[in-house]
Amino acid sequence: MINLPNFISQLFNGLALGALLALISSGLTVIYGTLGVLNLAHGAMFMLGGYAGFVVFGATGSFGLAVLTGAVFMLVMGVFIERVVIRHFYSRPDEDQILVTFGIGIVIVESVRFFFGSDSIQITPPSWALGITSLGFMIYPTYRIVVLGIAAVALLALYVVLYRTKLGMIVRAGIEDSGMVDMLGINVNQVFMLVFGIGAMAAGFAGVINAPVVALTPDSGETILVETFVVVVIGGVGSFPGAVLGGLISGEILSLTSMVNPSYSQVMLFAVMTLVLMLRPQGLFGQQGRA
Amino acid sequence: MRRWWPEAAAAAGLAVAPFILPTLGFSPDTVNRILVWGLFGLGFDMLFGYTGLLSFGQSAFFGTGGFAAAYLLTQGIIGNVMVALLVGTLAGALAGVVVGLIALRRTGIYFAMITVAIAQVFFFLENSPLSAITGGENGIPGVPAPVFNLGFTVIKVGSGWSMYWFLAVCFFAGLIIARRVVASPVGVIMVAIRDNTARVEALGHSVWRYKLTIFVLASAYAGFAGGLLGVLQGYMPPDAFAFDTSGQLVIMTVIGGTGTLFGPLFGATIWLYLHDFLQGPMGLGSAWRLALGLVFVLLVCFLRRGVLGGIAGLLHRTAPTEAPESSPDMVAEPSDHIHVPRRGTAQVSGGPVLQAQNLTKRYGGLFANSDINFSVNEGEIRGIIGPNGAGKSTFFKMLTCEVVPTSGKILFHGQEITGLGVAQVCQMGLTKSYQVNQLFGRLTVRDNITIAVLAERRGAFRPDMLRRVGSVDGLSGQVDNTLAQINLTHRSDTLVSMLAYGEKRRLEIGLALASSPTLLLLDEPLAGMSPQERVETLKLLRNIRQGRTLVIIEHDMDEMFEIAEKITVLSEGRLMAEGTPEEIQRNSFVQEAYLGGLHV
User: Fold this and answer.
1) Where in chain B is the domain with CATH 3.40.50.300?
2) Which of B505, B544, B543, B499 is nearest to B525 (CA)?
3) For a disulfide at A52, which of A64, A70, A246, B151, Cβ 3.0-4.6 Å?
4) Cβ contact (<8 Å) for A267 and B129?
């Protein structure tokens, strides 16, 4: 149904979804840009973050604590995975890196299935974010506004880390030329470990705040992973601004198309990706020859 | 040359499988599904194992072929199962053309991501917009099994082992074709693309078209296998289109071993057997996938070549390893009068063969080359000298069309080549030997040269996938000639990775030479060679100049002054001087800026 209130509400939905996609994609893109590894386990990490948050939320009833522990848990997991597996793959071909992260993704998904089963788990938003809020021009579910707010804050935090800290400067330099950074005497190994952790954290964080919007299942990371790929292909692999803009564009496409006909929303998203590939193969913010 | 025993072994294996596998606990249904996956994997292994293109989107073609065949059969549009399967195969191939045109625009991780994304489109299309045709989440039930009327008798394929024989014949046919493809000129080029894509292009092959060909071929295999899945189950399931299908195919291929063709079949056997075994007798329930996921990660970490690759590795270890070359071989005189065929019959006229007009290359604010005017006459040996960073290699890259100039024009035989592709230019007879070796490290010396000669013999692209490499007209003669010229005949069956540095340098020149250029650019051909090797190489250069134009970048002044007829001096991206070796030696700028007064 197309009318103005519906359109505005879908525009908002798109913004919330877009911010979330932007957050997950920036994790993927920063990992790729710095480490040169395409993380196919990213969707699984998103899902795992959601389950971690769910466990804490169930035990403590505190949503804030759930978000925090979910994020920290994924940071630790990311660092662990980098140290144990990914580290040994930097000098191996692209395909091997893709294969091993794909395998890690399966292990994560199946571990969650083992402990929590395949049934979807419904999570209610925290009591203070239940219900609807009037924004003056329209009324909107409160929790969605919260998601939008949290995702925006998290993106801002990521921006600050990347563009206003020493670590961020090293990471951005590493995206340009990690060999040179190494030669300058900076311990790239530690930076790589941290970047993988932060990337995983971004995915996990998004997983926790998204959990109340849609139900949790062990497979919920799969669709997200594919959408994330589209986001970075549109935005340009390795580019943080590209991930943010690509995320917002993708969110709006999904949401506005589903207003017209939900069954075409995914198809439309990929059509736009194809268009970008035709007109600007390196993506909106990508640089020629980087990938 | 072509070994036939893998086919014979496969035929024997397929023939005895129904009598052996049941005793190991395989049900006929499991064995049949192994064959479908094995066939699906034949195409995928050619794509990934041989050509190095890791696609996570093969489900798109598997599903397309399967649903096309199932739809046609259940709607009664096509009554003959074999015809429907063929149409399904073509539908898969057609989808492969469309997807390939998009996905192959990018390489590496982009390619992997795009194939995932596009396969997802197919999944969504099947699920809702096309659900009137595909049945959406219900799939298409009632797919019939084939009936063969042989005139004297009618064979009606049923379920179980009856279906097995039908599938086994299909798999065997697919295997024979795949084996022929990898032994064809296209097969050699596929492996070369995996090894060093840029060099394949530089040798004059249209890499993009070869990649698309293989991609479409893999899609056709997927389409055929998808159709067989429907026939096997009597039902076409929607999850044929799922990401999980592509993922399983990748896992099976990696477990079994990539680049073997049999890998996916073995991988599928292991996968499906463990599936039955872990779920049943072991009582692991749904945890079987977790166990397999762990096994997969461990395999990728420690046994990347898979089970078959691991076995092959063990067998090889017992065989004697290649001894490194002993230096006395080097001294062997290369024959001086080996005829090297050249492209075309162009007579040496002495006119300009290559001209560069106001050639400029700018990187941001940096001018790598500015305003260079340069002309080489036919039959000439030209030297280019200049200090490090003078822009010599950039200049070469523009001449071979590896790098597009910012402005200016390049004419080859009077024809403008600015903006053409590097393969096109090589096909016209202009190629280069690289400063840093660009060889096919995982192939033998002979195969390396073969790849170069194939481009010259067959042109930029030819889909002769069923023909043997050896049957290419004049191929072996030209390969042998080139090997003799660069004095590597005795090393022809050695892997390039085992060669000594000087040998690799000669092979590098040999690759360029094998494509029979009329104009050969040599970027520091003597770099890193011993004095003895330098003498040999200079001799080689003099030998190959017959009817050919050579442009050489070299740091070694003495050798340059000796061999070149005319020398061009570049400095800071500009052309500073040009003249005979004597003139250049006397030139005051050259003495100051480059020779450092040494020759004064």
Assistant:
1) 351-429+517-600
2) B505
3) A70
4) yes
CB B218 within 8 A of CB B46: yes
A229 and B128 within 8 Å at the Cβ level: the answer is: no
CA distances from A113 to B113, B463, B540 (A): 25, 47, 66
Enumerate chain A positions whose Cβ falls within 8 A of a Cβ in B. Answer: 32, 38, 85, 88, 92, 94-96, 98-100, 102-104, 106-107, 109-111, 113-114, 118, 222, 225-226, 229-230, 232-233, 237, 263-264, 266-267, 270, 273-274, 277-278, 281, 291
Nearest CA-CA partner of B119 in B136, B100, B144, B133: B100
Q: What residues of B are in contact with residue A233 (Cβ under 8 Å)? A: 110, 113-114, 117
- B297 and A CB contact within 8 Å: yes
Q: List chain A domain ranges.
A: 20-219
Q: What's the gap in Å between the CA of A205 and the closest CA on chain B?
A: 23
Q: Is B294 on the interface with A (CB under 8 A)?
A: yes
Reported ipTM: the value is 0.88
> Exposed/middle/buried for B419, CB within 10 Å: 0-12, 13-18, 19+?
exposed
Q: Report the chain B residue with the minimal C-alpha distance to residue A106.
A: B293
B75-99 mean pLDDT: 94
Per CATH, the number for B351-429+517-600 is 3.40.50.300
Contact B267, B254 (CB under 8 A): yes
* B402 has a pLDDT exceeding 80: yes
Look over chain B and give the mean of its residue pLDDT values, rounded to a whole number.
87
Count of C-beta atoms within a 10 Å radius of residue B155? 13
Q: Can you spell out the DSSP letters for B253-277?
A: HHHH-TTSSSHHHHHHHHHHHHHHH
Question: Which residues from chain B sit within 8 angstroms of residue A103, using beta carbons?
Answer: 251, 293, 296-297, 300
Report whether A54 contacts A211 (CB < 8 A). yes
**Interface with chain A: mutation pick from B120, B127, B304, B363, highest number of A CBs within 10 Å:** B120
- For residue B549, name the pLDDT band (cuts at 50, 70, 90): very high
Which residues on adjacent β-strands are paired with residue B550?
B381, B520
Helices (H), chain A: 4-35, 42-60, 63-84, 94-116, 142-164, 166-183, 188-210, 220-235, 240-260, 265-279
* pLDDT, tens digit, 9 for 90 and up, residues A59-104: 988 888 999 999 999 999 999 999 999 999 988 888 899 999 999 9
- What number is the average pLDDT over the span A115-140? 80
Distance from CA of A283 to the nearest CA of B (A): 11
Give pLDDT tens digits for B278-292. 777 776 777 888 888
